[in-house]
Amino acid sequence: MTTELSPDALPELLERARKDYAALAARGLSLDLTRGKPAPAQLDLAEDLLSLPDGRHTAADGTDVRNYGGLQGLPELREIFADALQVPVTQLVALGNSSLELMHDCLVHALLGRVPGAESRWVDQERIAFLCPVPGYDRHFALCERFGIEMIPVPMTPDGPDMDEVERLAAGDAAVKGIWCVPKYSNPDGACYSDETVARLAAMSAAAPDFRIFWDNAYAVHHLTDEPVETADLLAACAASGNPDRVFVFGSSSKVTFAGSGVAFFGASPDNVRWLLANNAKRSIGPDKVNQLRHALFLRDAAGLRAHMARQRELLRPKFDAVQRILAAELGGTGLAEWTDPKGGYFVTLRVPDGCAKEVVRRASEAGIVLTPAGATHPYGDDPRDATIRIAPTFPVQDDLEQAMLGLTTCVRLVGYEKLSAS
Amino acid sequence: MTTELSPDALPELLERARKDYAALAARGLSLDLTRGKPAPAQLDLAEDLLSLPDGRHTAADGTDVRNYGGLQGLPELREIFADALQVPVTQLVALGNSSLELMHDCLVHALLGRVPGAESRWVDQERIAFLCPVPGYDRHFALCERFGIEMIPVPMTPDGPDMDEVERLAAGDAAVKGIWCVPKYSNPDGACYSDETVARLAAMSAAAPDFRIFWDNAYAVHHLTDEPVETADLLAACAASGNPDRVFVFGSSSKVTFAGSGVAFFGASPDNVRWLLANNAKRSIGPDKVNQLRHALFLRDAAGLRAHMARQRELLRPKFDAVQRILAAELGGTGLAEWTDPKGGYFVTLRVPDGCAKEVVRRASEAGIVLTPAGATHPYGDDPRDATIRIAPTFPVQDDLEQAMLGLTTCVRLVGYEKLSAS
């Protein structure tokens, strides 16, 4: 962010920003860019689910999907997602409607049970810490906070987390039990982990024998361009590096079919899978297999999944294009902002001058545009530079999104020029 | 169990039992009386669910059920179950497909968080214990065992647990944090808690300020007779007794609609509900509301729920009748067995002479009839008298059930007469 601004121009720019903001506030908007929710039009693409499985209640292997049982989930659905999640079908588990639940439950089972390789339950250890690439996903951080797991921020780069830092921290501190990763189209940067990042994660030394990578592959098939990004296969790399149990892979169809009524997946080494299933066997008599059959019939196969996501992309591309267009038109060359241009996923990161993010979000809120709270992208809600804003363009209709983005850029100009004037 | 047997008759009875057992074993049966699973014919009654909500995706309050959100679950479904579970709609939560999961999660949240009234997390306390009425449900006991919660058995009576014991233990030991209760048609006795039992549970002194009754009302609407048993309202009684937070009510539609794809419920005081929802908010972005809408459309209202259960009863009554008929015909007057005659629920308890239950189960298994392991009805799998066998008549078709019951009675005669002969 270099400003090309001459000091003489500042009063006029500030004056214009103030006028624009007053006009914005006067419009009484009520717009929401907070959460990564699919829009109703995206959900409509899966409308057939609402009458499936249409009288059928038998899985390919003869299982009556209506009854109890089947802790690992339906094989035909696992087959559809195995390639996308880079997990062999036999090591993939299909469960309930939320991958966040699975991450929560894996933490619980590690805290109260003993994860393979652990010397004791995590809850019995004096200190437990997770590495948190920042900016990252607020709900990951909320899980750590809820369980008293210390969070150690690590800066993100366009290739994934700063691996020098990750290696140093994982090797040097046995209390570091894990790291949160969104490897493809990360939340919120849209960054994709490079092959080198994946290789280093698999091979690095970890002081904790029970170190785990929570690999939240939430956007595995959520491409926005003609060049789908393929990240390297961490599960295979871990096995090849002699660390087969290092990774828990998470995935979900929440942003494929219905956000609230999808199917979540867990993939890992055979030992980890046995561990999860043994824990789950105490907790449940099996997942909702009717919903799994419903999804298998709807998506059909891996090609069907890809075709469905291509239809999602047609709806999402214009929204992400609008975000880029408006940011460039309104903030390009001002020196007040930088932003990411993701090739997939659900978010755009907007970086404003240090100390401005909270104020931008506050001003936007006062003008009726609700944004994710500034700081939410960092552990404990604390962005030390107060510079990161997460934009979630998917849910609003196109016109609302464009109005909200224009309003947001007005707020950035207002707060940015106010700050420059004060300094 | 008083035997009317004259010693002279024993050799002949044993001889006949041995012959019958040899003939049974020679038949090469493969029958299963282990688990309380609905039969396919019961599941067929809810077949319409397989094409619901049939294109509809909007709840009564306008919510798009396909998307995220709605942590408390759909009001229209909660309304249908509120009366049956004796929980006001505003204090009832509709969640995923398993009430066992909810019980597990409540334990987890109490262990790792702080339940209302608690002085500290349970995991930070030196000793935690639960009262376990016996015989009881093995999956309750498995949860305690998994989390290192000490189990203290309390004898069941036809009116519920021995309340003198419950009161003594709850009042005298602050480590006693809870009790497992299946108040109506209990698993496996089919006992129903009397009004006095409910009143005493609500009013008794508990040394632990965070004492909780895990009220697993699994068979709330699962009547087998023309005289549906109505147990007293514990949630209201607790509030009236000044112990509003004492009870967690659990329920589920697993044995109403589809065992694996139903909806589970949690009901409690407003403070407890807020506590659960706050914990759930960290774990999930909401339950599967499409499935909740599906159930609301299928069941329609409380009367629809009752009518559906009347159809279930038509299928189950002949099975429970056969169990009674065969037990009476084959073991009546032998002095070898006593059994319960439940007015609802899913189980019959068969009591055999002390020291015989494991052997009966073993002999039955060798003859191709699989029963719930003897001891499963007691904490740690340890029935000190080795006398309790749980019979689950629902899943097999009528003929298989009758074959299995005949075989079981043969095993009881064999093992019982062998024991008498040896003594």
TrEMBL record, chains A, B:
Entry-linked Pfam families: Asp_aminotransf
Kindly list the GO molecular function terms attached to this UniProt entry.
Answer: DNA binding; L-aspartate:2-oxoglutarate aminotransferase activity
Q: Which UniProt keywords apply?
A: DNA-binding
> What CDD domains does the record point to?
AAT_like (cd00609)
Which InterPro entries does its entry note?
A: AspAT_Ic, PyrdxlP-dep_Trfase, PyrdxlP-dep_Trfase_major, PyrdxlP-dep_Trfase_small
For this entry, the protein name equals DNA-binding transcriptional MocR family regulator
Source organism of the structure: Allonocardiopsis opalescens
